[in-house]
């Protein structure tokens, strides 16, 4: 006891000491801030967007005089070392105190080398691959002048109508957390002062993925238990991994705009989680506080500042209104100081004061951009993200022989391989599937190509959906006929269909989740030929595939696989690679089942799940409760047999055998349920997983150890607790097909 109290006193002593001790960097910032005027401090909180700045003209926001007079703390969407150097030069050589700029960008899944969309990346369950992709993204983006990246996006989403589900890691908080950490490690490395690492920015804080009805920018209203147990963990994980900045979200949270939510930013993020980095609002969020009717426009900036939003993205309201608000006594100058300090600290952590031009070395472009090595890694990773949803009679992989009809609007669309947030890619360089198939088969097989259909029958709908990457249109009837002729000549049909690249991502909510009309109609006609059909599904979200599941023998979900996707798809289709991706979001049977997620709570009158309809259960009279493809699901070209799982103390062991004729990788999953707790707990929660690679006939034993962090949760008072009692332990290949064991936690 004595020792303990001594330690306690030493502990207090140390923390008092560390509170008062100023580092050299603190002193540098103290000195700098002593010299800065209020306007100049507000300037550091002002974040501008490129556009005019990119072209070097001096209109509107991008006026040179703003940089020279110290009214800008950072810019984003400025492309290229030359443009970045020019602005950095204005700020550093001509600005009041030579303060360098933050240069932001949305490098969400690669820069010029583009990797699969984040939702797809999460389906690899491969945090090493994700960290590697983030590392390569950092190398390329920093070679082009970027020092601040608006990624990772960690919003948990249980509603695939929301287009931004494509940008996150799916529906699971635990998997989302380990992936969030991998992104941060990859972007920031161990040393943000290096010239090939950049500052990460976790977003969108918070709960943006829970927008009502899956409609982008819509309201979020959520219980605290749901928030803390299921939606907040990935943001917290990013903070724990040292993420140096954070972006607030567009949405309301229980009636308060996230950007003006002091409880969220100051109490939860800073006080509870110990976040010491800087925050930034999302695009033009500050005036939107008043759009929601929370305050008058002239007070919105003061409210955001008070809540802890440090940097104002684009609106300009901090710089335009805060000085007056301070004079009126409605805003606190000390808060401007705090925010300004955090922005300067971020610049310091990046090493920008030591060398503002460290990201502006044109010679890096040739060495580091879109290199063969980066592209090879992107191709490898892309193949890991594909999910084989169905493969009757082992139709895939295809032999390189005979005649293969490659049909569909996405078959020859090199510009549609990358998906959302791929603005820095060079789409003109990307191989299309048609080219990749021809390269793969050489003269061993014939590829007969037909575009088959438009994306949608209706031109306006297609135009709205296609966004930046429009596809040439033709007459659907004629295209369907041409496709059927191609099919008639072939031994097998490969249909490349689904969503076009910009049908998911920001502001791309959908009310219907089927493959769009004309494509689905064509698919029906192709299936009716009686020839075997492989569906290569392009999509940025789970789709409703009930008809396809009943009528198409093989479905390989290839998402949007990035700049090297075409080669990666060919690798998998022709068997160079064996697919091993597993879904990180539930695929519903119908939009009416949404929200549908695996880690749900028990309902009153639970569905007996014995297949017999019971009216007074929590079910639908016209559809099962079951998803079409559950969370964690994904097939392989081989099959894996699970032995009987055993538990001894806190150790679970299970044998996995490759029962097929090709080597493959299985992702073995561990789920836990707290059977009795103070508040209702989910029917299962993912707590661990292992990749196991097996040659044909090979068996390996996998083991898991149950640790206290797998058993805890936030109770009704938001205390994180771990209660003694019985836990159900589940092991298996996905969240549905599980073996059940029990584990008891004693006091
Ligand atoms: C998006 C953010 C993005 C920002 C800057 C916003 O519209 O919501 O995710 O980082 O724009 O491009």
Describe the structure.
α9 links the parallel β4 and β5. α18 packs across α24 and α19 crosses α24. The protein starts with a helix and ends with a strand. The N terminus is likely disordered. Helices cover 33% and strands 17% of the residues. By secondary structure, the protein is of the alpha/beta class.
Ends apart, CA distance between termini = 23 Å
Q: Sheet bearing the most strands, described?
A: 8 strands, parallel
What is the averaged pLDDT score?
A: 95
Oligomer: single chain
What compounds sit in this structure? beta-D-glucopyranose
- The largest sheet has its strands arranged as 9-6-5-4-3-2-1-10
Residue stretches low in confidence (pLDDT < 50, at least 5 long) are 1-18, 54-61
Query: What integer value in Å does the Rg equal?
Result: 27 Å
Sheet-strand content, in percent, reads 15-25%
């Amino acid at each position: 006891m004595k020792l303990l109290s001594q330690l306690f006193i030493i502990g207090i002593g140390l923390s008092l000491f560390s509170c008062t001790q100023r580092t050299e960097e603190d002193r540098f910032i103290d000195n700098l801030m002593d010299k800065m005027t209020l306007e100049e401090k507000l300037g550091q909180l002002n974040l501008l967007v490129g556009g005019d700045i990119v072209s070097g003209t001096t209109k509107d926001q991008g006026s040179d005089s703003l940089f020279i007079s110290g009214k800008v703390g950072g810019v984003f969407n400025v492309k290229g070392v030359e443009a970045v150097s020019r602005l950095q030069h204005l700020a550093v050589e001509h600005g009041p105190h030579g303060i360098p700029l933050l240069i932001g960008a949305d490098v969400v899944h690669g820069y010029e080398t583009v990797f699969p969309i984040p939702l797809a990346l999460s389906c690899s369950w491969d945090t090493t691959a994700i960290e590697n992709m983030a590392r390569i993204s950092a190398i390329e983006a920093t070679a082009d002048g970027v020092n601040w990246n608006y990624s990772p996006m960690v919003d948990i989403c249980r509603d695939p109508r929301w287009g931004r589900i494509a940008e996150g890691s799916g529906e699971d908080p635990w998997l989302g957390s380990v992936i969030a950490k991998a992104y941060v490690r990859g972007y920031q490395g161990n040393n943000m002062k290096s010239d090939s690492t950049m500052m990460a920015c976790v977003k969108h804080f918070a709960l943006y993925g829970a927008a009502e009805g899956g409609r982008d920018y819509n309201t979020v209203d959520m219980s605290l238990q749901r928030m803390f147990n299921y939606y907040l963990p990935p943001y917290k994980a990013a903070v724990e991994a040292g993420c140096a900045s954070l972006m607030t979200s567009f949405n309301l949270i229980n009636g308060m705009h996230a950007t003006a939510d002091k409880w969220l930013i100051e109490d939860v993020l800073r006080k509870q989680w110990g976040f010491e980095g800087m925050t930034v609002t999302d695009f033009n969020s500050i005036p939107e506080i008043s759009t929601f009717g929370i305050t008058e426009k002239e007070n919105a900036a003061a409210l955001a500042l008070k809540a802890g939003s440090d940097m104002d993205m684009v609106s300009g309201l901090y710089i335009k209104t805060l000085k007056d608000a301070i004079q009126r006594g409605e805003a606190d100058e000390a808060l401007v100081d705090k925010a300004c300090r955090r922005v300067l600290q971020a610049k310091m952590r990046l090493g920008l004061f030591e060398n503002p031009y460290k990201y502006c070395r044109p010679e890096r472009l040739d060495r580091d951009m879109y290199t063969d090595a980066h592209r090879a890694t992107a191709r490898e990773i892309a193949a890991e993200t594909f999910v084989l949803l169905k493969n009757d009679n082992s139709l895939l992989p295809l032999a390189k022989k005979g005649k293969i009809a490659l049909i569909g609007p996405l078959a020859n669309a090199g510009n549609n391989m990358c998906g959302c947030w791929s603005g820095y890619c060079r789409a003109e360089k990307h191989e299309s599937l048609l080219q990749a198939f021809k390269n793969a088969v050489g003269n061993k097989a014939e590829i007969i190509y037909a575009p088959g259909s438009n994306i949608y029958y209706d031109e306006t709908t297609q135009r709205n959906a296609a966004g930046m990457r429009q596809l040439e249109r033709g007459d659907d009837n004629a295209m369907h006929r041409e496709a059927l002729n191609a099919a008639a000549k072939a031994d097998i049909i490969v249909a490349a269909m689904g969503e076009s690249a910009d049908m998911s991502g920001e502001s791309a909510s959908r009310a219907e989740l089927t493959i769009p009309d004309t494509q689905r109609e064509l698919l029906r006609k192709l299936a009716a030929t009686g020839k075997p059909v492989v569906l290569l599904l392009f999509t940025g979200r789970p789709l409703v595939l009930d008809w396809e599941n009943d009528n198409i023998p093989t479905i390989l979900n290839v998402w949007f696989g990035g700049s090297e996707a075409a080669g990666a798809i060919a690798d998998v289709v022709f068997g160079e690679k064996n697919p091993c991706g597993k879904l990180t979001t539930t695929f519903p049977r119908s939009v009416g089942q949404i929200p549908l997620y695996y880690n749900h709570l028990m309902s009153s009158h639970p569905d007996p799940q014995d297949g017999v309809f019971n009216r007074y259960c929590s079910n639908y009279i016209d559809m099962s409760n079951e998803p079409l493809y559950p969370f964690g699901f994904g097939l392989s070209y081989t099959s894996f047999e699970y032995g009987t799982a055993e538990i001894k103390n806190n150790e679970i062991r299970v044998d996995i055998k490759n029962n097929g004729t090709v080597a493959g990788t299985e992702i073995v999953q561990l789920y836990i349920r707290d059977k009795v707790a103070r508040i209702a707990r989910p029917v299962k929660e993912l707590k661990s997983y292992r990749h196991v690679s097996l040659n044909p006939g090979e068996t390996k034993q996998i083991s898991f150890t149950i640790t206290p962090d797998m058993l805890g949760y936030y109770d009704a008072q938001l205390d994180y607790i771990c209660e003694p009692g019985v836990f159900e332990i589940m092991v298996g290949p996905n969240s549905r097909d599980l073996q059940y064991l029990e584990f008891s936690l004693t006091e």
